[in-house]
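Friendly challenge for the regulars: who can give me the structure tokens for this chain first? No prize, just bragging rights.
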Amino acid sequence: MAPQNSGMNKAASESLWKRWLDRLLVLDVFVVLAGALWFAAAVVASSQGLEAPLRQFQRLWEPLFTPAIGLLIAAALANGISSWWQRRALQAERDSET
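First reply, four minutes later:
Bragging rights claimed.
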């Protein structure tokens, strides 16, 4: 019975870790979307002569928006590689059964 509980604890901790990672990535998506909306509004405001929103966006570009976009791209790539690897493992499993 102990090995089953150990497996369940590992699955539960893995699930908790994945849940927090998913939450972080959802928050990251909202940060990127908010940045895109802010940029669009700042460009419109700048065309009307109001430069403050665009200057503030430019100040936050490097410390906030660049890492958020990088994290989003890295997560998408990791998800794609993980899916590809799982499909490959399933295909190899099916091939070995026949």
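Residues 2-97 form one domain. The longest helix spans residues 2-47. Your move, everyone else.
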